Amino acid sequence: MTDQPAPSVCQLLADLHAYRQRTMAPADLQVNIDQRQLLEYTADRAAFVKAGDVVPPFSLPEVLGGTIELDRLLADGPVVLLFFRYEGCPACNIALRHYQLELYPALAELGAALVAVSPQVPGRLAAIKKRYGFGFPVVSDNGNGLARRFGISSRPARRPRPTPGPTGLTWGRCWGPASGNCPCPPSS
Predict the structure, then answer these.
(1) Count of CB atoms within 10 A of residue 57's CB?
(2) Residue 79: which of 6, 152, 150 has the closest Cα?
(3) Do 118 and 140 contact (CB within 8 A), yes or no?
(4) Looking at domain 58-157+173-188, which CATH architecture does it have?
(5) Least confidently predicted of 43-47, 51-55, 177-181
(6) Which residues, other chains included, contact 95 with Cβ-Cβ below 8 Å and sequence gap of 6+?
(7) Cβ(34)–Cβ(157) under 8 Å?
(8) Contact 82, 117 (CB under 8 A)
(9) Contact 57, 69 (CB under 8 A)
(10) What distance in Å separates the CA atoms of residue 154 and residue 182, rounded to the nearest whole number?
(11) Which residue of 61, 78, 85, 144 has the fewest C-beta atoms within 10 A of its own C-beta?
(12) Which helix or strand (DSSP H or E) is residue 117 part of?
């Protein structure tokens, strides 16, 4: 067996897009493309937190219990926050699995902590952590307070319907009643 490098997250997401092109109805695919382009074009990069910025302390619930506090993490070394939309997002699942295998071990070697952050309610987020056995904390930023402080919160152009969809979930049960935005990093 050859020791080939893992594909990049960009390649994995390009593969997802190619799969969507083969399997999605053209109108549905266009909605997906338009949403991503809107997020990219309307991102206020001047508001993004930048390298060297001091981030005010925060505390968020870890999805399997307990609380993650920035100050406690920083006492042990640097912290990398990875924002993602929700547990069922295909692109998020691909990226998070990749980060578990490639980024998390490299950061751990450097003494840095990786924390995944989503606005989704903790009960829903626990599923992704359990599914992939993430070694890093997954926290709920329900209401998007932290994402807004970092300038990466955005309201989707089309909010899901308030009635239960095919999975039986409503927006409020999935995201919490106060949420209407999702974190949308520029690489979304």
Answers:
(1) 9
(2) 150
(3) yes
(4) 3-Layer(aba) Sandwich (3.40)
(5) 177-181
(6) 9, 12, 13, 84
(7) yes
(8) yes
(9) yes
(10) 6
(11) 78
(12) strand 113-118
Answer yes or no: are the C-beta atoms of 91 and 13 closer than 8 Å. yes
Tokens for 95, please give them: 């990226």
Residue 169 has pLDDT above 70, yes or no: no
How do beta strands 182-183 and 153-154 pair?
A: antiparallel
Query: Under DSSP, is residue 39 helix (H, G, I), strand (E, B) or coil?
Result: helix
Residue 187, pLDDT above cutoff 80: no
Q: Is the pLDDT of residue 153 over 90?
A: no
What's the residue count for the chain?
Answer: 188
Q: Look up the pTM and report it.
A: 0.80
CB burial of residue 104 (10 Å; 0-12, 13-18, 19+): buried
Contact 96, 84 (CB under 8 A): yes
Q: Tell me the Ramachandran region of residue 21: left when phi exceeds 0, alpha when psi lies from -120 to 50, beta otherwise.
A: alpha
Alpha carbons within 13 angstroms on the beta-carbon side of residue 46 total 1
Cα end-to-end span (Å), the chain: 34
Torsion of CA 60, 73, 49, 51, to 10 degrees: -170
CA atoms within 13 A on the CB side of 130: 9
Angle, in degrees to the nearest 10, between helices 26-42 and 9-23: 140
